[in-house]
Every structure is written in structure tokens, then in C-alpha cells.
Amino acid sequence: MKHTRLEPVTLWREDRDGGRQLEWNDMRLLIGSAALCALLVAGPALAGDAPKTKSDRSCFRSDDVNGFTVVDDQTVDVTITPKNVYRLTLFAPSPDIDWSLRIGIDSRGRSWVCQGYDADIVVPAAITGLRRYPVTEVRKLTPEEIAASRKKKG
């Protein structure tokens, strides 16, 4: 029985020294892989969204909320203290929130609400019991915005 031996010459071209030559396709693969690695490493820097530092974060404890104002059917301002008011943007319009005398804030996993999807606004509904509206954005209002909303309300 005769055995056939595969030689490197049958698999790829070799140079004179017996080493494998880099083909054009091999070079394209190598350059493409290097470019992809560079993009993966530089991606977060190119995105432009710098991570928020601790001082930039807008956090409050859901237990500290002592009042709310409905801005529109998708926006609610919650009051912690007279100088600490946070604007919560809801995932979907809530037609019954404007008529509600009370709302609840159900924080997910912990009592701090710092960003969207950390909490749900819970609104009592006449027929269904409770309706939940996920919060998609949390933003602390500036003193000027607080004063403007109080002028508009009063």
C-alpha cells in the first residue's frame, strides 16, 4: 500500500527558503484585523459620550420624594427639597397621570434613582388598579428651570 504524503507545496506556495509567502489575501486579512482591533480599542473615545463623573450624576433616593408636578403626559417633575427637583421622562405617554392625586416611584433593585430605567412611575388607575410607566431619563433641574416652572404653575 502506497501512502501519499502531503507536502507544503501542495497547500501553498513557498519561497526559496522553504518558508510560507504572504499572499495578497493574507495581507488584506492582516491589515483588516489590525484596523478592526484599532477601532475596537478607540471606539469609546470616538463615541464622544464621556462617562458621567460622580458630580455630574443626577441621583436621588425614591424615599425622599415629597411632591410631584406633571409637565405633560410624558414628563413629571419630582421634588426632593425646594432646591432639588428632578425631571423624569417616561417611556410612553400617561394620559391618567395628570388626573392623579398621588404617584409612586418604584426603584429597581435599590433605592437610588440615577438614570433612565432605574425606576417606574406607578399611577393608580380606576379599573386596572395600578399602571406602571418606565422612566427613560432622569435630569436634575437648574435653579432657573425650577423658578420658571414655579412661575408657570403659580
Write the layout of secondary structure elements.
Elements: H1 8-11, H2 24-47, E1 60-61, E2 67-72, E3 75-81, E4 84-90, E5 104-107, E6 112-113, E7 119-125, E8 129-140, H3 143-153
Antiparallel strand pairs: 1-6, 2-3, 3-4, 4-8, 5-7, 7-8
Describe the structure.
The chain is an alpha+beta fold and 154 residues long. It folds into two domains: 8-47; 60-153, no CATH class. The chain is 25% helix and 31% strand. The chain has three helices and eight strands, in the order H-H-E-E-E-E-E-E-E-E-H. The chain has a six-stranded antiparallel β-sheet with strand order 2-3-4-8-7-5, with no helix packed on it. It has a two-stranded antiparallel sheet with strand order 1-6. The protein is elongated. The chain starts with 7 loop residues before the first helix and ends with a helix. Residues 48-55 have low confidence and may be disordered.
